[in-house]
Amino acid sequence: MTILVTGATGYIGKRLIPLLLNQGHTIVCVVRDRLRADKSYADEDNIYVIEADFLKPETLVNIPKKIDVAYYLIHSMSNSSKDFESLEERCAINFKNYVETTDVEQVIYLSGITNEDVLSKHLRSRKNVEEHLKSDTYALTIFKAGIIVGSGSSSFEIIRDLVEKLPFMIAPKWLNTKTQPLAVRDVLAFLYHAAGNESVYNKSFDVFGPEILTYKEMLLQFAEVRSLKRYIFTVPLMTPKLSSYWLYFVTSTSYKLATSLVDSMGIQIIGKSSNINKLLKVNPITYKEAVQLAFEKIEQNSIVSSWKDSMVSSGRLKNNLHKYVNVPKFGCFEDVQERNIIDADQTIEKIWRIGGKNGWYYGTILWRIRGYLDKLFGGIGLRRGRTNPTALDAGDALDFWRVIYANKSQQKLLLYAEMRLPGEAWLEFKIRDNKLIQTATFRPRGLWGRLYWYSVLPFHSFIFSGMINKLVKVESQKAALTTENLPNL
């Protein structure tokens, strides 16, 4: 079958595509920014990447008409727009209007469980999208999930931050809210088993794990898996705003995402039973099993996707990375460092491992202080780290930077700053003529931007110099001499 996947660079989309490819399907990935499409897709014969934006109907013309099944995985946890619900509605309407002109027989939508009378605005929006996706020309299959648990999922990473950092918690009362967590592997199983399966046409199913747990119980079970003793006391005094700040300062989430999560976590998410497990032969695992499986993926460095790589995790960047690829030259300040390279391959490997747990090679304490200050002033700080310790792709989060361009064969890495700044900043590493050129570019915004640059200039002089020295240094004990560069005897 030919399958259209929207939201192809999202948390679920990036995990679903390999499963569909393994089943022998031809995949059409729709992305808003081609730079964010996983470059490994270029090596596949039966996958095509189409750049389109469902908020702009005129961009959809390149999507092929010969489609059998389409996955609608477009949604956001952002609070950045006042008309959030209307934007999601427009996306759904534009999607429906276009796919109705194709040969598509089935659309599969991943929604949220919405059985309560009072819903958060995001669950309300999910329910509204369901209505707008219904059609007389194709069959609609809806899967409604609650908390999704897996390596890199927002719920997993936030719970991990809380459990591993706080032995004693005074927490908001919404920790007593009940939910039915579902492992990401089971979400994916429901999704790919449903493709072309007529038994689920024009039907909606709640999908959930085998247990009903409160968020407090999830925290405590997570602690058990990690062999940690934790004490949690809930208090009724925390307002939603205070709860959002609590999540923001303790975990790696952004404040906007924290606000969205608090809004949703106050709503009980309990699914309605159906025959879907038997129908698709899916037996959901327990929450503890899901957590254990997630840590196995982490230990194997095989996290496929992470919520931290979503643009929502910062709020500074929108979806179009192309806008930031061309580093400006006029009206900017630059710090340019150049060093001769002894071992280009080793230098490239060091660059590709920069940030996260590996750090920035020099002045680590100053990088951490900058991260704390950024968090204090409403930024993201260094807590996002990186998804993979050795691999980088365009769109990945890297501490308080975003990867704009990453190409090992061209020996170039470009980062864009998502920290709080009175301006914009880029950090570029490239190898040319056996030299590493490291360029920090800052485009100031007004007088405060210029004052900021001059205030940090003394720190740049040794931080950037020290960093490039470490990048070109050969780590082996022997000098990098070979018979090719020895003098003739």
TrEMBL record:
What is this protein's name?
SDR family oxidoreductase
Q: Which domain of life is it from?
A: Bacteria
GO molecular-function annotation terms? protein-containing complex binding
A Pfam family reported for this protein in Swiss-Prot or TrEMBL: NAD_binding_10
Identify the InterPro entries for this entry.
ComplexI_NDUFA9_subunit (IPR051207), DUF2867 (IPR021295), NAD(P)-bd_dom (IPR016040), NAD(P)-bd_dom_sf (IPR036291)
Q: Where is the signal peptide?
A: none
Query: Highest lineage ranks of the organism?
Result: Bacteria, Pseudomonadati, Bacteroidota, Flavobacteriia, Flavobacteriales
| Positions of the NAD(P)-binding domain | 7-134
